[in-house]
Automatic annotation (TrEMBL):
The keyword Iron applies. InterPro entries: 4Fe4S_Fe-S-bd, 4Fe4S_Fe_S_CS, Cyt_c_oxidase_cbb3_FixG, Electron_Trans/Redox, FixG_C, Helical_ferredxn, Ig-like_fold. This is Quinol dehydrogenase membrane component. GO terms for cellular component: plasma membrane. Keywords: 4Fe-4S, Electron transport, Iron, Iron-sulfur, Membrane, Metal-binding, Transmembrane, Transmembrane helix, Transport. Pfam families: Fer4_18, Fer4_5, FixG_C. GO terms for molecular function: 4 iron, 4 sulfur cluster binding; metal ion binding. It comes from Alysiella crassa. The chain crosses the membrane at residues 32-50, 70-99, 155-175, 187-207, 337-356.
Length: 474
Protein backbone atom coordinates (compact mmCIF):
# COMPACT_ATOMS: atom_id res chain seq x y z
CA UNK A 1 0.00 0.00 0.00
CA UNK A 2 1.43 3.36 -0.95
CA UNK A 3 1.93 6.07 1.67
CA UNK A 4 -0.93 8.10 0.23
CA UNK A 5 -3.44 5.21 0.44
CA UNK A 6 -2.84 4.53 4.15
CA UNK A 7 -5.87 5.46 6.31
CA UNK A 8 -5.25 8.71 8.14
CA UNK A 9 -5.48 7.92 11.84
CA UNK A 10 -5.36 10.30 14.73
CA UNK A 11 -4.08 8.87 17.97
CA UNK A 12 -6.92 8.71 20.47
CA UNK A 13 -6.72 7.74 24.15
CA UNK A 14 -9.74 5.89 25.46
CA UNK A 15 -9.84 5.54 29.27
CA UNK A 16 -11.26 2.17 30.20
CA UNK A 17 -10.92 3.05 33.85
CA UNK A 18 -12.02 6.44 35.08
CA UNK A 19 -11.63 7.52 38.68
CA UNK A 20 -15.07 8.13 40.19
CA UNK A 21 -15.67 11.80 40.89
CA UNK A 22 -16.56 12.60 44.48
CA UNK A 23 -20.27 13.48 44.62
CA UNK A 24 -21.17 16.39 46.88
CA UNK A 25 -24.96 16.35 46.96
CA UNK A 26 -26.74 19.55 47.87
CA UNK A 27 -28.86 19.42 51.02
CA UNK A 28 -32.53 18.90 50.18
CA UNK A 29 -35.30 20.29 52.38
CA UNK A 30 -38.91 19.26 52.33
CA UNK A 31 -41.42 16.60 53.31
CA UNK A 32 -39.35 13.60 52.24
CA UNK A 33 -36.14 14.97 53.79
CA UNK A 34 -38.06 15.24 57.07
CA UNK A 35 -39.32 11.66 56.76
CA UNK A 36 -35.73 10.53 56.13
CA UNK A 37 -34.49 12.43 59.20
CA UNK A 38 -37.25 10.86 61.28
CA UNK A 39 -36.40 7.36 60.01
CA UNK A 40 -32.68 7.86 60.66
CA UNK A 41 -33.36 9.04 64.22
CA UNK A 42 -35.83 6.18 64.86
CA UNK A 43 -33.59 3.41 63.46
CA UNK A 44 -30.49 4.75 65.19
CA UNK A 45 -32.24 5.20 68.55
CA UNK A 46 -33.11 1.52 68.24
CA UNK A 47 -29.62 0.47 67.12
CA UNK A 48 -27.62 2.55 69.63
CA UNK A 49 -30.14 2.30 72.47
CA UNK A 50 -31.29 -1.32 72.48
CA UNK A 51 -28.06 -2.88 73.82
CA UNK A 52 -28.33 -0.62 76.90
CA UNK A 53 -31.83 -1.81 77.75
CA UNK A 54 -32.03 -4.30 80.63
CA UNK A 55 -34.48 -7.17 81.18
CA UNK A 56 -34.38 -8.47 84.76
CA UNK A 57 -30.65 -8.68 85.42
CA UNK A 58 -29.35 -9.10 81.88
CA UNK A 59 -29.21 -7.23 78.57
CA UNK A 60 -32.72 -7.30 77.02
CA UNK A 61 -31.48 -8.22 73.54
CA UNK A 62 -28.22 -10.13 73.57
CA UNK A 63 -26.99 -12.45 70.82
CA UNK A 64 -24.55 -14.52 72.86
CA UNK A 65 -22.80 -16.38 70.02
CA UNK A 66 -20.14 -17.86 72.30
CA UNK A 67 -22.73 -19.29 74.70
CA UNK A 68 -25.01 -20.17 71.74
CA UNK A 69 -27.97 -18.35 73.34
CA UNK A 70 -30.02 -15.56 71.81
CA UNK A 71 -31.88 -13.50 74.41
CA UNK A 72 -34.75 -11.38 73.09
CA UNK A 73 -36.54 -9.96 76.12
CA UNK A 74 -38.31 -12.99 77.69
CA UNK A 75 -37.49 -15.29 74.79
CA UNK A 76 -34.36 -17.43 74.99
CA UNK A 77 -33.34 -19.10 71.72
CA UNK A 78 -30.68 -21.74 71.54
CA UNK A 79 -28.65 -23.39 68.82
CA UNK A 80 -31.37 -26.00 68.34
CA UNK A 81 -33.89 -23.22 67.70
CA UNK A 82 -32.19 -22.78 64.35
CA UNK A 83 -35.54 -23.45 62.66
CA UNK A 84 -37.05 -20.48 64.42
CA UNK A 85 -34.14 -18.22 63.50
CA UNK A 86 -34.26 -19.37 59.89
CA UNK A 87 -38.01 -18.72 59.87
CA UNK A 88 -37.45 -15.21 61.24
CA UNK A 89 -34.89 -14.47 58.54
CA UNK A 90 -37.17 -15.82 55.82
CA UNK A 91 -40.08 -13.71 57.03
CA UNK A 92 -37.83 -10.63 57.06
CA UNK A 93 -36.69 -11.37 53.50
CA UNK A 94 -40.25 -12.01 52.24
CA UNK A 95 -41.40 -8.88 54.05
CA UNK A 96 -38.83 -6.91 52.09
CA UNK A 97 -39.99 -8.48 48.79
CA UNK A 98 -43.63 -7.70 49.66
CA UNK A 99 -42.76 -4.11 50.55
CA UNK A 100 -40.71 -3.67 47.37
CA UNK A 101 -43.58 -4.88 45.19
CA UNK A 102 -45.87 -2.30 46.74
CA UNK A 103 -43.62 0.66 47.33
CA UNK A 104 -40.39 0.12 45.39
CA UNK A 105 -37.14 1.12 47.03
CA UNK A 106 -38.50 2.69 50.21
CA UNK A 107 -36.16 0.48 52.23
CA UNK A 108 -33.12 1.79 50.31
CA UNK A 109 -34.25 5.39 50.54
CA UNK A 110 -35.13 5.59 54.21
CA UNK A 111 -33.88 2.68 56.32
CA UNK A 112 -30.98 0.80 54.74
CA UNK A 113 -27.86 1.12 56.95
CA UNK A 114 -25.88 2.20 53.87
CA UNK A 115 -28.27 5.12 53.25
CA UNK A 116 -28.45 5.96 56.94
CA UNK A 117 -24.68 6.08 57.54
CA UNK A 118 -24.03 7.90 54.26
CA UNK A 119 -26.61 10.48 55.32
CA UNK A 120 -25.05 10.83 58.80
CA UNK A 121 -21.62 11.34 57.19
CA UNK A 122 -23.18 13.92 54.84
CA UNK A 123 -24.62 15.75 57.84
CA UNK A 124 -21.08 15.93 59.25
CA UNK A 125 -19.77 17.19 55.86
CA UNK A 126 -22.47 19.81 55.81
CA UNK A 127 -21.97 20.82 59.45
CA UNK A 128 -18.19 21.22 59.21
CA UNK A 129 -17.53 22.21 55.59
CA UNK A 130 -20.80 23.89 54.60
CA UNK A 131 -23.18 23.25 51.72
CA UNK A 132 -22.31 21.79 48.33
CA UNK A 133 -20.67 24.88 46.79
CA UNK A 134 -18.43 25.44 49.80
CA UNK A 135 -17.40 21.77 49.82
CA UNK A 136 -16.59 21.82 46.10
CA UNK A 137 -14.55 25.00 46.60
CA UNK A 138 -12.73 23.58 49.61
CA UNK A 139 -11.76 20.43 47.72
CA UNK A 140 -10.19 22.52 44.95
CA UNK A 141 -8.30 24.76 47.38
CA UNK A 142 -4.60 24.03 47.96
CA UNK A 143 -3.77 22.66 51.40
CA UNK A 144 -3.44 25.45 53.95
CA UNK A 145 -3.91 25.81 57.73
CA UNK A 146 -7.66 26.48 57.37
CA UNK A 147 -8.29 23.49 55.13
CA UNK A 148 -6.26 21.20 57.44
CA UNK A 149 -8.22 22.44 60.49
CA UNK A 150 -11.59 21.88 58.77
CA UNK A 151 -10.66 18.43 57.46
CA UNK A 152 -9.21 17.35 60.83
CA UNK A 153 -12.42 18.44 62.61
CA UNK A 154 -14.50 16.49 60.10
CA UNK A 155 -12.38 13.33 60.39
CA UNK A 156 -12.47 13.52 64.17
CA UNK A 157 -16.29 13.59 64.12
CA UNK A 158 -16.40 10.77 61.56
CA UNK A 159 -14.02 8.74 63.74
CA UNK A 160 -16.25 9.22 66.80
CA UNK A 161 -19.39 8.12 64.88
CA UNK A 162 -17.64 5.12 63.28
CA UNK A 163 -16.01 4.03 66.55
CA UNK A 164 -19.23 4.31 68.55
CA UNK A 165 -21.13 2.45 65.82
CA UNK A 166 -18.55 -0.37 65.95
CA UNK A 167 -18.72 -0.54 69.77
CA UNK A 168 -22.53 -0.57 69.68
CA UNK A 169 -22.57 -3.34 67.08
CA UNK A 170 -20.26 -5.46 69.24
CA UNK A 171 -22.58 -4.64 72.16
CA UNK A 172 -25.36 -6.66 70.56
CA UNK A 173 -23.14 -9.73 70.98
CA UNK A 174 -21.37 -9.00 74.26
CA UNK A 175 -22.85 -7.26 77.33
CA UNK A 176 -22.25 -3.59 76.48
CA UNK A 177 -22.39 -2.30 80.06
CA UNK A 178 -19.34 -4.42 80.78
CA UNK A 179 -17.69 -4.03 77.36
CA UNK A 180 -17.46 -0.21 77.35
CA UNK A 181 -15.66 0.12 80.73
CA UNK A 182 -13.47 -2.85 79.74
CA UNK A 183 -12.32 -0.96 76.61
CA UNK A 184 -11.12 1.98 78.70
CA UNK A 185 -9.51 -0.30 81.29
CA UNK A 186 -7.78 -2.31 78.55
CA UNK A 187 -9.42 -5.57 79.62
CA UNK A 188 -11.94 -6.06 76.77
CA UNK A 189 -11.86 -9.44 75.01
CA UNK A 190 -10.14 -9.68 71.62
CA UNK A 191 -13.19 -11.06 69.81
CA UNK A 192 -15.44 -8.19 70.94
CA UNK A 193 -12.71 -5.63 70.24
CA UNK A 194 -12.10 -7.12 66.78
CA UNK A 195 -15.84 -7.02 66.00
CA UNK A 196 -16.06 -3.37 67.05
CA UNK A 197 -12.97 -2.49 65.03
CA UNK A 198 -14.16 -4.22 61.83
CA UNK A 199 -17.68 -2.79 62.01
CA UNK A 200 -16.33 0.69 62.77
CA UNK A 201 -13.96 0.41 59.81
CA UNK A 202 -16.80 -0.72 57.51
CA UNK A 203 -18.95 2.20 58.71
CA UNK A 204 -16.19 4.66 57.83
CA UNK A 205 -15.33 2.95 54.54
CA UNK A 206 -18.90 2.47 53.28
CA UNK A 207 -20.46 5.60 54.79
CA UNK A 208 -17.71 8.13 54.15
CA UNK A 209 -15.34 6.84 51.48
CA UNK A 210 -17.40 4.63 49.13
CA UNK A 211 -20.89 6.04 49.68
CA UNK A 212 -22.99 5.62 46.52
CA UNK A 213 -20.42 3.20 45.06
CA UNK A 214 -21.70 0.54 47.50
CA UNK A 215 -25.25 0.93 46.13
CA UNK A 216 -24.08 1.05 42.51
CA UNK A 217 -21.56 -1.79 42.49
CA UNK A 218 -21.88 -3.95 45.60
CA UNK A 219 -25.51 -4.18 46.64
CA UNK A 220 -27.26 -7.28 45.20
CA UNK A 221 -30.67 -5.93 46.15
CA UNK A 222 -30.22 -3.03 43.71
CA UNK A 223 -29.82 -5.58 40.93
CA UNK A 224 -32.76 -7.86 41.57
CA UNK A 225 -35.33 -5.48 43.04
CA UNK A 226 -36.54 -4.51 39.57
CA UNK A 227 -37.70 -8.13 39.13
CA UNK A 228 -40.22 -7.47 41.93
CA UNK A 229 -41.52 -4.27 40.36
CA UNK A 230 -44.72 -4.39 38.40
CA UNK A 231 -46.90 -1.96 36.49
CA UNK A 232 -48.40 -0.69 39.81
CA UNK A 233 -45.30 -0.45 42.00
CA UNK A 234 -44.58 3.00 43.42
CA UNK A 235 -41.53 4.53 41.76
CA UNK A 236 -40.01 7.98 41.79
CA UNK A 237 -40.49 9.40 38.33
CA UNK A 238 -40.16 12.53 36.31
CA UNK A 239 -43.38 13.32 34.46
CA UNK A 240 -41.90 13.83 30.99
CA UNK A 241 -45.32 14.50 29.42
CA UNK A 242 -45.66 17.52 31.69
CA UNK A 243 -42.00 18.58 31.87
CA UNK A 244 -40.89 18.44 28.22
CA UNK A 245 -39.70 20.30 26.28
CA UNK A 246 -37.57 21.54 29.12
CA UNK A 247 -35.86 24.92 29.09
CA UNK A 248 -34.90 27.98 31.06
CA UNK A 249 -37.30 30.92 31.25
CA UNK A 250 -38.00 33.97 33.33
CA UNK A 251 -40.00 33.42 36.49
CA UNK A 252 -43.11 35.14 35.26
CA UNK A 253 -42.85 34.04 31.64
CA UNK A 254 -46.22 33.07 30.19
CA UNK A 255 -46.31 29.59 28.59
CA UNK A 256 -47.34 31.10 25.24
CA UNK A 257 -44.19 33.31 25.25
CA UNK A 258 -42.07 30.24 25.00
CA UNK A 259 -43.88 26.94 24.41
CA UNK A 260 -42.08 24.85 27.02
CA UNK A 261 -43.00 22.16 29.50
CA UNK A 262 -42.78 22.72 33.26
CA UNK A 263 -39.12 21.66 33.64
CA UNK A 264 -37.01 24.80 33.77
CA UNK A 265 -33.80 22.73 33.46
CA UNK A 266 -32.42 24.16 36.70
CA UNK A 267 -30.60 20.90 37.57
CA UNK A 268 -31.67 21.14 41.23
CA UNK A 269 -32.85 17.52 41.07
CA UNK A 270 -29.41 16.39 39.89
CA UNK A 271 -27.49 18.46 42.44
CA UNK A 272 -29.29 16.85 45.42
CA UNK A 273 -29.00 13.29 44.10
CA UNK A 274 -26.64 11.22 46.29
CA UNK A 275 -25.87 8.88 43.38
CA UNK A 276 -25.38 11.73 40.89
CA UNK A 277 -27.99 10.64 38.34
CA UNK A 278 -30.57 12.61 36.41
CA UNK A 279 -34.04 11.23 37.16
CA UNK A 280 -35.28 12.83 33.93
CA UNK A 281 -33.43 10.08 32.03
CA UNK A 282 -36.01 7.56 33.29
CA UNK A 283 -36.02 4.75 35.88
CA UNK A 284 -32.44 3.71 36.63
CA UNK A 285 -31.07 1.02 38.93
CA UNK A 286 -28.76 3.68 40.43
CA UNK A 287 -31.80 5.46 41.91
CA UNK A 288 -31.97 4.51 45.59
CA UNK A 289 -35.41 6.07 46.01
CA UNK A 290 -34.34 8.73 48.52
CA UNK A 291 -36.83 11.28 47.12
CA UNK A 292 -34.38 14.17 47.50
CA UNK A 293 -35.12 15.11 43.87
CA UNK A 294 -38.86 15.34 44.67
CA UNK A 295 -38.18 17.85 47.46
CA UNK A 296 -35.77 19.84 45.27
CA UNK A 297 -38.14 19.98 42.32
CA UNK A 298 -41.18 20.83 44.46
CA UNK A 299 -39.27 23.82 45.82
CA UNK A 300 -38.62 25.00 42.25
CA UNK A 301 -42.25 24.42 41.26
CA UNK A 302 -43.36 26.54 44.24
CA UNK A 303 -41.02 29.35 43.16
CA UNK A 304 -42.37 29.18 39.61
CA UNK A 305 -46.00 28.97 40.82
CA UNK A 306 -46.39 25.67 38.98
CA UNK A 307 -48.18 22.72 40.56
CA UNK A 308 -45.94 20.39 42.59
CA UNK A 309 -45.25 16.80 41.50
CA UNK A 310 -43.26 17.16 38.30
CA UNK A 311 -41.08 14.55 39.99
CA UNK A 312 -43.18 12.39 42.30
CA UNK A 313 -44.02 8.94 43.62
CA UNK A 314 -46.18 7.37 40.97
CA UNK A 315 -46.48 4.14 38.99
CA UNK A 316 -45.75 2.98 35.50
CA UNK A 317 -49.51 2.63 35.03
CA UNK A 318 -50.04 6.34 35.71
CA UNK A 319 -47.17 7.35 33.44
CA UNK A 320 -48.72 5.20 30.68
CA UNK A 321 -52.02 6.97 31.36
CA UNK A 322 -53.75 3.65 32.23
CA UNK A 323 -55.14 5.29 35.36
CA UNK A 324 -54.51 8.41 37.46
CA UNK A 325 -52.52 9.08 40.64
CA UNK A 326 -55.73 9.02 42.70
CA UNK A 327 -56.31 5.38 41.66
CA UNK A 328 -52.93 4.15 42.97
CA UNK A 329 -54.35 3.09 46.36
CA UNK A 330 -56.99 0.94 44.63
CA UNK A 331 -54.22 -1.04 42.90
CA UNK A 332 -52.97 -2.25 46.30
CA UNK A 333 -55.56 -5.02 46.26
CA UNK A 334 -54.04 -6.66 43.18
CA UNK A 335 -53.66 -10.49 43.21
CA UNK A 336 -49.85 -10.53 43.50
CA UNK A 337 -49.93 -8.32 46.61
CA UNK A 338 -52.83 -10.25 48.16
CA UNK A 339 -51.03 -13.57 47.71
CA UNK A 340 -47.81 -12.16 49.23
CA UNK A 341 -49.76 -10.62 52.12
CA UNK A 342 -51.63 -13.83 52.93
CA UNK A 343 -48.45 -15.91 52.82
CA UNK A 344 -46.61 -13.42 54.99
CA UNK A 345 -49.36 -13.15 57.61
CA UNK A 346 -49.73 -16.94 57.81
CA UNK A 347 -45.98 -17.44 58.15
CA UNK A 348 -45.69 -14.72 60.80
CA UNK A 349 -48.63 -16.07 62.84
CA UNK A 350 -47.25 -19.63 62.57
CA UNK A 351 -43.80 -18.52 63.66
CA UNK A 352 -45.05 -16.52 66.64
CA UNK A 353 -47.31 -19.37 67.72
CA UNK A 354 -44.36 -21.75 67.47
CA UNK A 355 -42.06 -19.37 69.37
CA UNK A 356 -44.40 -18.91 72.29
CA UNK A 357 -45.75 -22.46 72.61
CA UNK A 358 -42.55 -24.35 71.98
CA UNK A 359 -41.09 -26.55 74.72
CA UNK A 360 -38.93 -24.53 77.04
CA UNK A 361 -36.99 -27.68 77.88
CA UNK A 362 -34.71 -29.55 75.51
CA UNK A 363 -33.70 -33.08 76.41
CA UNK A 364 -30.98 -35.38 75.12
CA UNK A 365 -31.25 -39.05 76.07
CA UNK A 366 -27.92 -40.85 75.70
CA UNK A 367 -27.46 -44.53 76.31
CA UNK A 368 -24.38 -45.00 78.46
CA UNK A 369 -22.22 -47.15 76.18
CA UNK A 370 -19.62 -47.66 78.91
CA UNK A 371 -22.08 -49.54 81.11
CA UNK A 372 -23.71 -52.45 79.30
CA UNK A 373 -26.93 -54.08 80.51
CA UNK A 374 -26.24 -55.72 83.87
CA UNK A 375 -28.01 -57.44 86.71
CA UNK A 376 -28.17 -55.27 89.84
CA UNK A 377 -28.16 -56.25 93.52
CA UNK A 378 -31.91 -56.77 93.50
CA UNK A 379 -31.56 -59.22 90.61
CA UNK A 380 -33.15 -56.81 88.13
CA UNK A 381 -31.85 -56.23 84.61
CA UNK A 382 -30.55 -52.64 84.46
CA UNK A 383 -29.56 -50.13 81.70
CA UNK A 384 -27.88 -46.79 82.35
CA UNK A 385 -28.76 -43.51 80.57
CA UNK A 386 -27.34 -40.03 80.67
CA UNK A 387 -29.98 -37.31 80.41
CA UNK A 388 -29.06 -33.75 79.47
CA UNK A 389 -31.61 -31.02 80.18
CA UNK A 390 -31.30 -27.59 78.58
CA UNK A 391 -33.54 -24.86 79.91
CA UNK A 392 -34.74 -22.71 76.99
CA UNK A 393 -36.46 -20.22 79.28
CA UNK A 394 -34.84 -17.53 81.35
CA UNK A 395 -36.22 -18.81 84.69
CA UNK A 396 -35.09 -21.86 86.70
CA UNK A 397 -37.11 -24.98 85.91
CA UNK A 398 -37.38 -28.30 87.74
CA UNK A 399 -37.52 -31.59 85.80
CA UNK A 400 -38.87 -34.93 87.00
CA UNK A 401 -38.38 -38.08 84.93
CA UNK A 402 -40.45 -41.25 84.65
CA UNK A 403 -40.22 -44.15 82.25
CA UNK A 404 -42.64 -46.61 80.59
CA UNK A 405 -42.67 -49.25 77.89
CA UNK A 406 -41.84 -52.48 79.74
CA UNK A 407 -43.69 -54.43 82.40
CA UNK A 408 -42.56 -53.53 85.95
CA UNK A 409 -40.14 -50.91 84.63
CA UNK A 410 -38.64 -48.57 87.24
CA UNK A 411 -36.23 -45.66 87.28
CA UNK A 412 -33.64 -44.72 89.91
CA UNK A 413 -30.87 -42.15 90.18
CA UNK A 414 -32.66 -38.83 89.83
CA UNK A 415 -32.67 -36.32 92.72
CA UNK A 416 -35.65 -36.75 95.03
CA UNK A 417 -37.24 -33.37 94.11
CA UNK A 418 -36.28 -33.55 90.47
CA UNK A 419 -33.39 -31.75 88.75
CA UNK A 420 -33.15 -27.97 88.97
CA UNK A 421 -31.95 -26.33 85.72
CA UNK A 422 -31.10 -22.64 85.82
CA UNK A 423 -32.56 -20.29 83.18
CA UNK A 424 -30.65 -20.70 79.92
CA UNK A 425 -28.46 -23.38 81.54
CA UNK A 426 -28.04 -27.16 81.21
CA UNK A 427 -27.69 -30.06 83.62
CA UNK A 428 -26.82 -33.70 83.09
CA UNK A 429 -27.86 -36.61 85.32
CA UNK A 430 -27.27 -40.36 85.09
CA UNK A 431 -30.22 -42.67 85.76
CA UNK A 432 -30.76 -46.39 85.87
CA UNK A 433 -33.76 -48.09 84.30
CA UNK A 434 -34.48 -51.64 85.48
CA UNK A 435 -37.01 -54.46 85.09
CA UNK A 436 -37.36 -58.16 85.75
CA UNK A 437 -35.05 -60.11 83.36
CA UNK A 438 -38.01 -62.10 82.00
CA UNK A 439 -39.69 -58.88 80.78
CA UNK A 440 -36.69 -57.88 78.65
CA UNK A 441 -35.41 -60.85 76.69
CA UNK A 442 -32.29 -60.57 74.51
CA UNK A 443 -32.41 -57.69 72.05
CA UNK A 444 -33.61 -54.10 71.94
CA UNK A 445 -36.93 -53.03 73.52
CA UNK A 446 -38.57 -49.62 72.90
CA UNK A 447 -39.17 -47.57 76.03
CA UNK A 448 -40.30 -43.97 76.57
CA UNK A 449 -39.08 -41.34 79.02
CA UNK A 450 -41.54 -38.73 80.23
CA UNK A 451 -40.11 -35.43 81.46
CA UNK A 452 -42.45 -33.39 83.59
CA UNK A 453 -41.09 -29.88 84.02
CA UNK A 454 -42.30 -26.67 85.60
CA UNK A 455 -40.98 -23.24 86.60
CA UNK A 456 -39.37 -23.62 90.02
CA UNK A 457 -41.57 -20.84 91.39
CA UNK A 458 -44.78 -22.15 89.82
CA UNK A 459 -44.98 -25.92 90.38
CA UNK A 460 -48.56 -26.02 89.07
CA UNK A 461 -47.59 -24.90 85.58
CA UNK A 462 -46.39 -28.34 84.54
CA UNK A 463 -45.62 -29.35 80.97
CA UNK A 464 -44.62 -32.70 79.58
CA UNK A 465 -42.10 -33.85 77.06
CA UNK A 466 -41.67 -37.42 75.83
CA UNK A 467 -38.57 -38.99 74.35
CA UNK A 468 -38.16 -42.49 72.93
CA UNK A 469 -35.19 -44.73 73.79
CA UNK A 470 -34.30 -48.42 73.73
CA UNK A 471 -33.64 -50.87 76.52
CA UNK A 472 -31.16 -53.69 75.91
CA UNK A 473 -32.25 -57.06 77.24
CA UNK A 474 -30.15 -60.14 77.99
S1 LIG B 1 -32.89 10.11 41.38
FE1 LIG B 1 -33.95 11.12 43.08
S2 LIG B 1 -34.74 9.47 44.33
FE2 LIG B 1 -33.23 8.58 42.95
S3 LIG B 1 -31.36 8.59 44.15
FE3 LIG B 1 -31.36 10.48 42.96
S4 LIG B 1 -32.31 11.99 44.29
FE4 LIG B 1 -32.73 10.01 45.19
S1 LIG C 1 -35.60 20.22 39.59
FE1 LIG C 1 -37.47 20.00 38.42
S2 LIG C 1 -37.44 21.79 37.13
FE2 LIG C 1 -35.38 21.59 37.88
S3 LIG C 1 -34.36 20.36 36.31
FE3 LIG C 1 -35.12 18.95 37.82
S4 LIG C 1 -37.10 18.33 36.98
FE4 LIG C 1 -36.54 20.20 35.91
Amino acid sequence: MSETNKPQSKEQVVHLYKKAERIHPKKADGKYANIRIFMIIATQLFFYGMPWLMWDDRQAVWFDLMGRHFYIFGLVLMANDLLLLTGLMMISAFGLFWWTTIAGRLWCGYSCPQTVYTEIMLWIDHLVEGDRNKRLKLDKEPWNARKIRIKLTKYLLIFVVAAWTGITFAGWFTPIRQFVPDIFQGTAGNVALGTAFVYGLVTWLFGHIMREQVCLHMCPYARFQSAMFDHDTLIISYDAARGEPRGARKKNAKPEDKPLGDCINCMACVQVCPTGIDIRDGLQYQCIGCAACIDACNEIMDKMNYPRGLIRYTTEGVLNKDYTDTDIKKRLARPKVMIYTTALVLAAVGLFAFAFTRDTLNVDVMKDRAVMARTNKQGLLENTYRLRFTNASEHPQRVKVSVSGLKDIRLTGQPENGTLVQGGGSEMITVQVATQPEYARKGSHPIEFTFTYFPDKAPNETRELKEKASFIGE
